[in-house]
Amino acid sequence: MALILVIETATKNCSLALCENGITIESIDYNDGNFSHAEKLHVFIEEILSKSDREFKDLNAIAVSKGPGSYTGLRIGVSACKGLCFGLNIPLIAIETLEILARTYLEENKITEQDLLIPMIDARRMEVYTATFDSKLNKIKETEALILQNHSFDEFISKSSCHFIGDGAEKSEVLFKGKKTSFTPNIYPSAKVMALYVEQAFIAKKFEDTAYFEPYYLKDFVDGKKNKN
Known about the structure:
Layout: E1 3-8, E2 14-20, E3 23-30, H1 37-51, E4 61-67, H2 71-88, E5 92-96, H3 97-108, E6 116-122, E7 127-134, E8 139-147, H4 154-157, E9 162-165, H5 169-176, E10 181-184, H6 195-203
Helix pairs in contact: 1-2
């Protein structure tokens, strides 16, 4: 049994949860439409501990959303978590962002056993970070940076009802809209749905090497500046 702080900063949603023994006891989700993690994250960490009448020394582990997602958001979240783990001498747990997004959707939506979940994070233009999960959150298509095309998900849409979720789902609706597809773009990964998962990871000691852990960027960073050479 453990007290675990969960931090999610891979998208515009700055999300934190304090979880104890597999139950979320306090959470914060803040999304003003911008990436405000640098200004808000440490304030929210102090706030969530204060609200639950806990202190840093009470924490048994830190869990972080590892990506893929925003380069800047991931760096801020992972740096904060690594710093806390080193300072408190506690382990680090990493969770793939797309799985958090899928779990967030399942928290408020019912699906059938045959349905598929396709979480998508916008990666600009017609590209998304995506993976495909079955109804029990088993990954049946690996995480990738995908440039969307009309046939991208034919193998799944022809057989199952597919739920496209996340801010990348908006651009996919034009391509894949049909009887077997639904689209929920206005949803972001939330730390509050991960309590049981991180508790199980803690018990199984699925910890990262804090010193060498890096975010799962999936592709190289491009800043968009023109090369003067």
